[in-house]
Amino acid sequence: MAELKKILVPDIGNFKDVSVIEVLVKVGDTVNAEDSLISLETDKAAMDVPSPYSGVIKEIKIKAGDKVSQGSVILLLDSSDHPPPQPPFPKGGSGCICDNTAYCSSSIGSGNTNTCP
Asked: What's the pLDDT tens digit per position in 88-105?
């Protein structure tokens, strides 16, 4: 089930009131974990802030030119960061859980499809 998450400015060192130079997403965009959300610039460096979750942007709380510090809310994200469903039979197919596909294929119907020799 998706949930609304506040995405915050992470630890950016001993910097306060860092300039937002660009907002890289807009409301309605789908992002993956680690996709860049905003670009920040200090007097020493520029950096992108990545999303910690996958999901859909619901509301953006900042704009280019704003000043932010660690903990400032960047945006609200409808999170879909759940592991993808696993197939019921991850290896070999047909109920086999080993890599020996030939063995598993010959075992179908024998009742011995869930183990390897």
From this structure: 444 444 444 555 555 444
